[in-house]
Amino acid sequence: MKNSNSLHQLKDDGFVSISYPPELRAAVLETVKSWKNFCALPNNIKTQFPYNPNNGMGVGYELKTTPGLSHDLKEDLHVTTGMSDWLRQSAEQTGDPIITALISQAEYLINLMKPLVINFAKQVETEFSIKDFADEVENSQDAWFLRFLHFFGNRKAGDELATSHADKSGFTLHLYESDPGLQCLTMDLTWVNMPVSPGETVIIPGMRLQYRSGNILKALFHRVVATDATATAGRFSMVCFVHLSRTPEYDKKNAGRLQEFPPGFNYTMPFEEFKKLFVPVIEK
Ligand SMILES: [Fe+2]
Q: Which of the listed residues 127, 217, 260, 268 has the most CB atoms within 10 Å of its CB?
């Protein structure tokens, strides 16, 4: 795990890379293999696995094939352990073993990630004096949100496969990227390639951590640009959004989609302004 100097990268560079324990890396690769098998299924099988909006924390499968303003062309699958029963039942109803295997591997992976996520949260809590942060992260585990992505080919090199945005999460682990093309916007507003390596996960703060840290850490703007290879062949990735269930949430309904903000708008915004983009969490 990181020492305090490298953790300080989170503030200065906007991200930090952490080595995977071997068992976790193996599980990531196995799960990605299952996701690729899922994507290779015919559309009429995949779409039998439904999408459940679940109060804005949607889980299940989505196929997005209609181009539109900053709507990415992709298919994705969202899994949380809090929605485990619904996900398992929905997978079983499709009767397809590839789908049931993927759901159980995804749940296994979320549980396996727990020590790394909690350890990281403890270090962030200490380094940036964020009171009870690790406890909040641990208590939000049901809502940690594993997202599988497949961007389609048939694009041009240089196209934005994923439009520039900051994540609404507490923080995001980039667990797997099949190819280069993930870029982030530095604090001085320059787009740079992010280090994507098979042995490490890149962690970036989202909007809720910017709020929770009182503007010390910034939600990192990032995007995915097509390379010569991915423009033709497409691109696979897997991320995990770690939510903070007690921290106010980004008010998408009133403030709009983060893809529509100028990249890096939040880097210099005073906290008094930034706070207005959030609404308190309603206890359920
Ligand atoms: Fe993102």
A: 217
